[in-house]
């Protein structure tokens, strides 16, 4: 039975991408604790061609997603691994204007009324988070940190996103390595 509703973002992970001669490999996913919110808006344009005094052809391009990932605090390990920050001999995390960010896969999970569903965006980039803070008043209100992210089609395969429900193969090991799509075997004609 499929879910009717979803809620409860959790289990965010990232896996750094290495690209060598057009081949993409993923490092082992690392946990990003403190998931607050994820918003991914579809990116792409409609293509409309008119001929014979009518809409002759219409289609949509899939450029992946643009959005935000809000965390309690962006982990320093993510800043070093993905955003190109460095750690000095004293353990200080240093941001350098010439740092080159790396692409990564983003893995996460939504709960549902029936099943938990795990997701992966295969080819993601992230911006640096803003720095924000405020004084305490009578109450303590935590500030969060937000990454602007883009999820694009993987060069070569053009895969953007995958999801898998509980009770499916690979669900239990989903966060051990980035999911690899499994081709569906077609039946031979006449079978």
Short key terms for the protein model shown above:
3% helix; globular; two-stranded antiparallel sheet; mainly beta; 191 residues; 1 helix
Q: Low-confidence stretches at least 5 residues in length (pLDDT < 50)?
A: none
Q: Give the overall shape, derived from the CA principal axes.
A: globular
What kind of sheet is the major sheet?
9 strands, antiparallel
The average pLDDT value, as a whole number, equals: 91
Give the tally of β-strands: 13
N/C terminus separation? 31 Å
Written description of the protein model:
- The chain is mainly β and 191 residues long.
- It contains 1 helix and 13 strands.
- A hairpin with a 5-residue loop joins strand 8 (86-87) and strand 9 (93-94).
- The chain is globular, with a radius of gyration of 20 Å.
- The two termini are 31 Å apart.
Which helices and strands, and how do they pair?
Blueprint: E1 6-20, E2 23-26, E3 30-31, E4 35-42, E5 46-51, E6 54-60, E7 65-71, H1 76-81, E8 86-87, E9 93-94, E10 104-112, E11 117-126, E12 145-151, E13 161-165
Antiparallel strand pairs: 1-2, 1-3, 1-10, 4-7, 5-6, 7-12, 8-9, 10-11, 11-12, 11-13
Gist of the model:
With 191 residues, this protein is mainly beta. The chain has one helix and 13 strands; from the N terminus they run βββββββαββββββ.
């Amino acid at each position: 039975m499929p879910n009717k509703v979803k809620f409860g973002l959790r289990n965010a992970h990232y896996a750094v991408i290495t690209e060598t001669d057009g081949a993409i490999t993923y490092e082992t996913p690392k946990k990003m604790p403190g998931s607050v919110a994820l918003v991914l808006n579809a990116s792409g344009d409609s293509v409309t061609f008119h001929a014979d005094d009518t809409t002759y052809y219409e289609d949509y391009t899939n450029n992946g997603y643009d959005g935000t990932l809000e965390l309690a605090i962006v982990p320093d390990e993510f800043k070093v691994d993905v955003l190109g920050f460095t750690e000095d001999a004293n353990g200080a995390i240093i941001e350098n204007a010439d740092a080159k960010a790396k692409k990564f896969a983003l893995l996460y999970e939504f709960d549902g009324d029936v099943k938990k569903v795990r997701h992966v965006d295969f080819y993601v980039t992230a911006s640096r988070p803003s720095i924000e803070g405020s004084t305490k008043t009578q109450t303590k209100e935590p500030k969060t940190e937000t990454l602007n992210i883009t999820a694009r089609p993987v060069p070569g395969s053009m895969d953007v996103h995958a999801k898998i429900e509980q009770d499916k193969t690979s669900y239990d090991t989903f966060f051990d390595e980035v999911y690899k799509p499994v081709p569906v075997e077609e039946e031979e004609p006449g079978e």
